[in-house]
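Ticket #4471: structure output looks truncated?

Reporter: J.K.
Steps to reproduce: submitted the chain below (335 residues) through the standard prediction queue, then opened the result file.
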Amino acid sequence: MKIGVLGAGSWGTALTVLLSGNGHEVTVWSIDKEEIAMLKEHREHKTKLPEVKISEDVLFTSDINEAIEDAKMIVMVVPSPFIRSTAKLAAPYVKEGQIIVNVSKGIEESTLMLLDEIIKEEIPCANVAVLSGPSHAEEVGKGMPTTVVAGAYDKETAMLIQDVFMSDFFRVYTSPDVVGIELGGALKNVIALAAGVSDGLGCGDNAKAALITRGIVEITKLGVAMGGNMLTFAGLSGIGDLIVTCASVHSRNRKAGYLMGQGKTYKEAMDEVKMVVEGVYSAKAALLLSKKYGIEMPIVEMINKVLFENLSSKEAMVALLTRMKTNESADLSWE
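Returned output as attached by the reporter:
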C-alpha cells in the first residue's frame, strides 16, 4: 500500500520504519526542509530518534502533495498544536474517501475540539480514524513489543488500519470509540505532567501510583460525559497509555513535570526537553472541558495552577492531599 506520513519527528520516524518494514511504500513529508535534507542524507533522525535506521525505499519530501497523491492512507503525526495548520495545507490534495489516521494526541485550546474533529472540519472529504496506546517512539523504532488500538467510525476502516500497522512486534486492536481513544491520549499527558512534578519533588512511588489511579478516574469521568465508553479508559488508550507516560524515562511530559517539580518554569522545562510537550498545550483545554461538563478534576486543576498561576509544585501537592474528605467512589455506599 502507498502511505503518506505527514510529520518527520520521533513518532513519525518510528512509524515510518514500522510501515516500511511491513512492506508498504512510504513517503514522508515535513514542513522543515532542513529536516528532510538530514533524513535523506543520513537515513536516520539524528536529533529525535538516533540510531534507528530508515530503509532506502522510503521517500522524503517537503512537497505535501507528493506524500498525499495516490496514497491509500495518510498518517497525521505532527504535534497537536500544528494539526489544524497541517490539515489546511493538506486539504487541497486529499481525495474523497482517503483514510487519514491521526496518531497525535491533544485538544485544541481555542475550540476545545479533539484532533480528529479538527481534521474532519478542515478536510471533510476524508475518512478520519485514530491510532493510540502506550507506544513510545524510542521503543517502536527499535522493534520492541508494543500494543495499540485503532479507532474508526466504521469497522472496515479499523480492520484495514489493523492490517496495515500490525507486525510481529506491533499488535493492533480495533475499536469504534474514536472519542474515548482521542480523549485518553490527550488527557493522560496532563496527568503525566503531575506525575513528573511528584517525581521532581521526591514524593516516591506511593504518590505516583495515587496520581495514576486518581488520574484515570478524572479522565474517565470527563470522557464518559463527552461520549466516550468507560471500557475504553480501562484499555490501552486509557490506563495503558497513562501508565507508560507517567512512568517511562522516554516520556517528555513526565520529564517536563520532573523539571517543574525541581523548580523550573514550564517554559524552562520545555526548552530543556527540546520537543513539544503536549500536556502543556492540553492542560487549559482539559480544565475548560471539566468546567463545561461539570466534572471535578482536581489534578488537572492543580497542574494548571502550577503551569499558569505560579503555584509552587509543593503547594499543589499539599492542596491535593488536604482536599475535603470523601469516598473513593460515589457509586459505592453503605446500606
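Triage note (M.O.): checked the attachment and the full C-alpha cell line is present. The chain has a mean pLDDT of 95.
Status: closed, working as intended.
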